[in-house]
Amino acid sequence: MTASFAQFRLPLLAAVLASALAGCASTPPPTGELSTAQQAVMRADDADADQYAPQDLNAARSALSAAQGALSQGKDEDARRLALTAVAEADLALARSREAKTGAELNQRRAEIAELRRRLQNGAGQ
User: Fold this and answer.
1) d(CA 67, CA 73)
2) 6: in domain
3) Which of 5, 14, 55, 57 has the smallest CB count inside 10 Å?
4) Per the domain annotation, does 51 fall within a domain?
C-alpha cells in the first residue's frame, strides 16, 4: 500500500510550525540597540548636555547602564527596552542642550544689537 500525502500532512505541518515558533522565540541580543544608545549618549555629552540638560543626560546614562546590566544577565527584552529608553532620554538631552545654546546666542545677539543702537543714538545726538 502506498502512503498518501494526507498521511504525512499533519506531522509535516507540526514540524513546520514547531520550527517557525522556535525561530520566532530566539531573537538576537539587542547589541545594535545598545550601540545606538551609546552613540546617542555621546552625542548629548558632546553637545554640553551636562551643563544644559543634566537630569536628562543622567537619565540616559542610567538607562544605558541598566540596559548593559540586563544584557549581561541575558534579559534581552529588558535590555532592548532600556536601550530604547536611553536613546529617547539622550535625544531629549541633546535637544534641550541645543535649545539652551541657541537661546543664549540669541540673547547675546540682542545685547549686541542694543549696544549698537545705543552707540548710533549717542553718535547722532552729538
Assistant:
1) 10
2) no
3) 5
4) yes
Asked if residue 73 belongs to a domain, the reply is yes
If one counts the domains in the chain, the total is 1
Which residues lie closer than 8 Å to 52 by C-beta, 6 or more apart?
96, 97, 99, 100, 101
pTM over 0.85: no
| Structural domain containing residue 39 | 30-101
Do 97 and 55 touch, CB atoms closer than 8 A? Answer: no
Residue 126 resides in a domain:
no
8 A C-beta contact, residue 33 and residue 84: yes
